[in-house]
Amino acid sequence: MVIVATAMMAFTQSNHSTTSASKTSSAVDQRVDSLMALMTLEEKIGQMNQYNGFWDVTGPVPADGDAAMKYENLRKGLVGSMLNVRGVAEVRKVQKIAVEETRLGIPLIIGFDMIHGYKTMSPIPLAEAASWDLAAIEKAAHIGAVEAAAAGISWTFAPMVDIGRDARWGRVMEGAGEDPYLGSKIAVARVNGFQGNDLADPLTIAACVKHFAGYGFSESGRDYNTVDIGTSTLYNMVLPPFKAASDAGARTFMNAFNVLNGIPATGNSLLQRDILKGEWGFDGFVVSDWGSIGEMIVHGYAANGSEAARLAALAGSDMDMESYLYVKELKGLVDDGKVDVALINDAARRILKVKFELGLFDDPYRYCDEQREKDLTGHPDHVAGVLDMAKKSIVLLKNDGNLLPLKKTGQKIAVIGALATDKDSPIGSWRGGADANTAVSVLEGLQQYTGNQYNYSKGADLVTEPATFLLEVKINESDKSGFPAAVQAAGSADVVVIVLGENGFQSGEGRSRTDITLPGVQTELLEAVAKANKNVVLVTMSGRPLDLSRESKLVPSLVQAWHLGSQSGNAIAQVLYGDYNPSGKLPMSFPRSVGQVPIYYNHKSTGRPNDAGNGIVFWSHYSDEANDPLYPFGYGLSYAAFDYADLQVSQPEKGKAVVSLEVTNTSQVDGEEVVQLYLHDIAASVTRPVKELKGFQKLMIKAGESKQISFTLGKTELGFYDNEGKFIVEPGEYEVTVGGSSVGGLSARFTVK
Predict the structure, then answer these.
(1) 114-157: per-residue pLDDT in tens?
(2) Fewer CB within 10 Å of terminal CB in the chain, N or C?
(3) Structural element, H or E, at residue 733
């Protein structure tokens, strides 16, 4: 143990809050170099190896199979990270092996998919994006980080920053929607929420930006599918949120399952070496997605495991998640001269640097405090925080006749739908360490308002058996036996609140859908209920935009409630009763039909965008559907009303424009409005979208109050990436539009010289 003692002496006393731009001069880099000098090639490769949790650490040591192999490698110092080991007791035991039984005692970094909370669950990320509230999103990420860190976790595989234009893709629930500007702002907020100001703080964890890159553009919205996009789309739509997260200091990236232009992302040097580590100067490390190095064989890019390991290492994948190929193949590849040892050194150095920044060498058990785990898990402040986030995530889509907010007394309210009493589905997919059936149901939330009478009727089951993360969800497609009771309840009520939508496990990884209407018999139930009572409030829960074209015609009020997490029912009830005035705006367009998908507001103009008239067919359109979405990006109603006036554009200096206007709350209730600014570069060397979000402000405006608002447009907002990946600002005419959604608003033109 002399080596360990000598090494650890060199590893102490660093300032973790500061990372120097110069690798040779920073304190952390010096400590990394000291450790690297003591390591064998095998130990360096071991740092590049990540295993999933593989045995019950309270039980006997594994005797055979993969578990025994993993255990032996852990004791040899050939494991750099483990994932899905959680809880202080479990983490402490595996960390003890790494620190106390290996030659150098290098601690593990413990990873986990903490996507939207650990125990106290925030809304799914797509729902959070609907808030357009960056401070609330950062706080929600911080709450998740605190609880995860208290449970022994030092690294989360989030945020997912993939731009999602295709609602069929189940993983849109993990991202921020269809827009790269909004997505970039949210990426920064979530990185800051996870990592805080000091990674050495034991209540912060390292962020992992994923999936690098293009995963959200999988053909037909089918998970793991091919991606084939042009340079303009890559640089202007896909990469900006990743660049923003890197600039914000995210310490790790995860590559993607997909191929991009015929090359698997895991083996893509352009993405990982040239762009990420080269142009952007990223000095953290890149981890593969689960088994993605081995999947390059199935893609037809690598002939065998040795070739897959070689290609991944050359391309810049620093850590192998669960394919076992680095620890098996890399030493032989180095010995045979097929992989330069400098690449191994670079990868190991990057991984060790993050471990030092996390403070794991100063105290390997810094994330292993049982009392802290007990005190912080489910803390009342966390419950209040996710409730606030949930309320802000709700989007009011329709409110004809001002049926909402509900009266608080004297009403008979029928509450209908299996999801109205479901305490599990609102938790959503990728639910971290949350316990099943721990969400507040909608009915429970409504019952907090005691001035009304509630009559619950299920109407129909949504699923025919319990839903799980691993298996396909079984949907009720035929049983309508509960319809008569639901209709009777509706007919005797003053108002109906019906809760329909997707099960929480119908979105997420592997959950692509070709039909994004309400699953099962739910629409038929709604039709029957609406015939019995015209005063129907439809609350939809989902992890993606749905085709609600039929449903929106049946009801006067429609509330998009997503999967809102632990406090779902309380949040929904407070919005329905008006104790919180809804302020959410859609981060993804809702289609009129799945045939429109992918549908997104920032599309390019065709050469024939407009109706030729007189029934002539030669223009870009569908013969059986409108071109516009049912509910567009940025759309969302309030119980307040807002008027926009006096749009002005000034140019105080070259290459800059200041846009100002007045927004007035013309209603009798206070409300929040998301003021959105869109820009159109009218003629450019590479065609630009018909409009692009380039600014937004979420403001509380009191009843009758007016506020003056201004936006400054500079190089960042006016420019774009050309087809060589160079950011440019071209002179010419621009159109700016400001309003409450991506449709309509006040417009003006100005010229950049």
Answers:
(1) 999 999 999 999 999 999 999 999 999 999 999 999 999 999 99
(2) C
(3) strand 732-739
| Domain match, 214 and 125 both | yes
Predicted TM-score (pTM) of this structure:
0.96
CATH of the domain at 119: 3.20.20.300
Helix-helix angle 65-75:88-100, to 10 degrees? 60
pLDDT of residue 17: 36
CB 644 within 8 A of CB 663: yes
With CA atoms as reference, report the closest residue to 416 among 365, 340, 484, 466: 484
Same domain, 358 and 475: no
Kindly state whether residues 301 and 439 are assigned to the same domain.
no
* Structure-token pair, residue 60: 């006997």
CA distance 586 to 496: 25
- Residue 461 pLDDT > 50, yes or no? yes
Per-residue CA distances from 745 to 8, 177, 256, 551, 588 (Å): 62, 22, 38, 27, 19
| Whether residue 289 lies in the annotated active site | yes
Longest alpha-carbon distance in the chain: 89
Whole-number mean pLDDT of the chain?
Answer: 95
286, 272 contact by CB (below 8 A): yes
pLDDT at residue 15 greater than cutoff 50:
no
Please state the three-class secondary structure of 155-175 as a single string. EECCCECCCCCCCCCHHHHHC
pLDDT more than 70, % of the chain: 97
Q: Which of 133, 162, 179, 289 is catalytic?
A: 289
What's the rounded Cα separation, in Å, for the pair 84 and 116? 16
**Residues shown for the chain:** 753
DSSP 24-36: TTSHHHHHHHHHH
Cis peptide before 405 (omega within 30 of 0): yes
CATH code for the domain in which residue 667 is found:
2.60.40.10
How confident is the model over 25-50, as a mean pLDDT? 94
Q: Which residues contact 294 (CB under 8 A, 6 or more apart)?
A: 305, 308, 323, 324, 325
The closest of 234, 160, 209 to 543, measured between CA atoms, is 160
Same domain, 331 and 367: yes
pLDDT digits (tens, 9 = 90+) for 47-74: 999 999 988 877 788 888 889 999 999 9
- The SS3 of residue 194 is helix
Where residue 582 sits, what CATH number does that domain have?
Answer: 3.40.50.1700
Q: How far is CA 340 from its chain centroid?
A: 36
Token reading at 133: 């509230």
Residue 652's domain comprises 642-752
Q: Which two tokens stand for residue 118?
A: 């650990």
Q: Angle CA(273)–CA(276)–CA(282) in degrees, nearest 5?
A: 110
697 and 550 both lie in a single domain: no
Helix (H, G, I), strand (E, B) or coil at 650: strand
Provide the number of structural domains found in the chain: 3
Residues 576 and 545 placed together within one structural domain of the fold: yes
- On whether residue 625 sits in a domain, the answer given is no
The answer to whether 675 touches 664, Cβ cutoff 8 Å, is no
